[in-house]
């Protein structure tokens, strides 16, 4: 019998912790969430406090494989910086792009944060979920039958 953990197998403890984190959002996270929830930001769908075992991402956009972390003062200790660096290295090895912003930056210049996130999504070449739902017009071509072999 195979004893290896399944991809992103999340323990009940980690799931409970993520749920608690969603209930008690700091001000900077709540402000950011208002900008991205429900596909409000360029049609990209974000989720908050998402378990990506063995970690929890503050915010996650699956279509761009983008993790956004909003770090408060607790992340300023040497020990926490080392842990965050190891975590980011692991997430990057899994194909995720990790962007970190301080709570101070989110609260003082949310526009710059949103610009950086928009650029990252664009640079990764991932279309928004909304653009995938829109069918091209017949005049534009590019539909299913446009590449027919003759």
Written account of the structure:
The chain is α+β, with helices and mostly antiparallel strands and 150 residues long. The protein has a single domain (12-147), classed as VSR Endonuclease (Endonuclease, Chain A, 3-Layer(aba) Sandwich), CATH 3.40.960.10. Helix content is 42%, strand content 17%. It contains six helices and four strands. It has helices at 12-23, 27-36, 78-93, 103-108, 110-123, 129-133; strands at 47-52, 55-61, 66-71, 97-102. It has a four-stranded mixed sheet, sandwiched between helices. Strand 3, helix 3 and strand 4 (97-102) form a beta-alpha-beta unit. The protein is globular, with a radius of gyration of 18 Å. The model is unreliable at 142-150 (pLDDT under 50). It holds the Pfam family DUF559.
* Number of distinct helices: 6
Q: Which architecture name does CATH use?
A: 3-Layer(aba) Sandwich
- In total, the number of domains comes to 1
- Give the strand tally: 4
The average pLDDT score comes to 79
Q: Class, according to the CATH hierarchy?
A: Alpha Beta
| Unreliable runs | 142-150
With strands numbered from the N-terminus, the spatial order across the biggest sheet is 1-2-3-4
**What is the name of the CATH superfamily?**
VSR Endonuclease
Structural class: alpha+beta
CATH topology: Endonuclease, Chain A
Q: Termini distance?
A: 51 Å
Query: In which range does the helix fraction lie?
Result: 40-55%
Shape: globular
| Share of β-strand residues | 15-25%
Order of helices and strands: HHEEEHEHHH
Largest sheet: 4 strands, mixed
- Whole-number radius of gyration? 18 Å
């Amino acid at each position: 019998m195979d004893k290896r953990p399944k991809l992103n197998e999340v323990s009940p403890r980690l799931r409970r912790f993520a749920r608690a984190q969603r209930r008690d959002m700091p001000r900077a996270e709540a402000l950011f969430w208002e900008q991205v929830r429900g596909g409000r930001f360029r049609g990209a769908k974000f989720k908050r406090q998402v378990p990506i075992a063995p970690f929890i991402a503050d915010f996650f956009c699956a279509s761009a494989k983008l993790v956004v972390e909003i770090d408060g003062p607790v992340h300023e200790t040497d020990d926490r910086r080392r842990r965050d660096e190891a975590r980011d290295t692991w997430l990057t090895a899994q194909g995720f792009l990790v962007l970190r912003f301080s709570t101070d930056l989110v609260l003082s210049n949310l526009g710059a944060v949103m610009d950086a996130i928009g650029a990252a999504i664009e640079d990764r070449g991932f279309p928004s979920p909304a653009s995938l739902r829109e069918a091209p017009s017949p005049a534009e071509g590019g539909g299913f039958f446009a590449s027919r072999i003759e």
